[in-house]
Amino acid sequence: MQKNTPLRQKPKYPIDSVDHALALMEMVRDYGRVRLSVAADLLGVSVSTAHRLMAMLVYRGYAVQDHARRYVPGPAMGLPPAGVAWTVELRRLAHPHLEALAERTGETSNLLVLAGTDVRFLASVEGERPVRVGDRQGVVLPASGASGGKALLAGMDPAEVERAYRRRAEQEGHAFDARGHARLSVELDAVRIRGYATNDEGTEEGISAVGMAVRDGSGAVVAGISVAVPQQRFRQALDDGLVAEVTRARAALEADLADFLAAR
Question: Distance from CA of residue 238 to its chain's centroid?
């Protein structure tokens, strides 16, 4: 089967042990705190195997164990975690809705969280169409280009968004792009009005998407949900009700998040 996946393609002859180690590294990075039992379950391996893999991450400085015997990002990880323990629960609650959304649309559904001015894909469920967008779990993209990222930024106060981009420019040692940010602000205003964001080949050639912000029980924006579609059938997907399907999935997920608070 064909997939439109120039961003990340699985090799023809994968090495499972390496794949598991890298997936484990992504868990530690994206979840912030990981227990071995949870890691083993997500990887589909035994706890003893997960322990051996984690021991290598600890040895190389990519993970350390905290006082509660959970594993957190080590100094070699470089990037800070996307969140803390709540991201594990968020992923668990969201996964059935991602599966249902992918089944209804035939396209790939994603769960994203904001990390500074980037977004990280916490979960991804591929659609069943022969030509489809591939798994994005673990991928990091600019929030200003991804549909889910734009929806997350639109859920923030505009002044807070500007501070985040000014901080990013300062950290990277270059001047703040005032004109570019003004263009982004106009786009985010439009997202706030219509309630969803689109990405028409904004992050990758041949890939388009629709994304919406997801709120927890307190009303705070905690994640983005999106559906990625090969660009050649994006307009048809919109005409066929893609926005309505993402809205339906978002509403169902938010209902399950009624008692969920990210900031806890």
Answer: 22
